[in-house]
Amino acid sequence: MTPKTLVLAALVGSVAATGALAKGGHGGMRGEMPAFEELDANNDGQLTLEEIVAFREAHAKQRFAEIDTDGDGQVTREDVIAAARDKAGDRAEKRAGRMFDRLDANEDGTLTEAEIATAKAEHADRRGDRMERMFDRADADGNGAISKDEFEAMQAMKKDRRKKNRG
């Protein structure tokens, strides 16, 4: 699956992404990362991999529900294209259509959360678990949790990397 396919999958709520079906493996959490406090579900001042994965999965379900405007548990090609256009502008329409076609495993003209989950699992099998690797890099002291300081350091590093890539 290409990075473009992963972007669409995140868009339609694999998420999970992760999610991960989002380009870069963030399971639908592209762009701005949620605040530390949003991810810290038990408010203990530490992020575990489980908290991040749970947040990512909830985000993916929410995004799928937003795109599934009639609530039937399926999104059509048109739903996906409209959501892509809303999120990324008109130029995303053609790309979203091609990505939809690749994800529609049974070729019935709709995507279900199960089809997205299958595509996500296949991607994870081929590329390894990027979320775990990202978590391990952020967990500078190796204690199995990310502190607020470690989280902020990770954010700063990502911001610096984006600047370098743009400039």
Task: Describe this protein's structure.
The chain is mainly alpha-helical and 167 residues long. The protein has one domain: EF-hand (Recoverin, domain 1, Orthogonal Bundle). It contains eight helices and four strands. Strands 1-4 form a two-stranded antiparallel ribbon. The longest helix is centred in the middle third of the chain and has 19 residues. It is globular and about 50 Å long. The two termini are 28 Å apart. The N terminus is likely disordered.
Quick summary of this structure?
59% of the residues lie in helices and 6% in strands. It is built from 8 helices and 4 strands; from the N terminus they run ααβαβααβααβα.
Average pLDDT over all residues: 76
Strand numbers in spatial order across the main sheet: 1-4
Rg, rounded, reads 16 Å
Per CATH, the class reads: Mainly Alpha
Keywords:
167 residues, mainly alpha, Recoverin, domain 1, two-stranded antiparallel ribbon, 8 helices, signal, calcium ion binding
Chain-wise SSE layout:
Layout: H1 3-11, H2 36-39, E1 46-47, H3 49-67, E2 74-76, H4 77-88, H5 92-103, E3 110-112, H6 113-127, H7 130-138, E4 146-147, H8 148-166
Antiparallel strand pairs: 1-4, 2-3
Helix pairs in contact: 1-5, 4-5
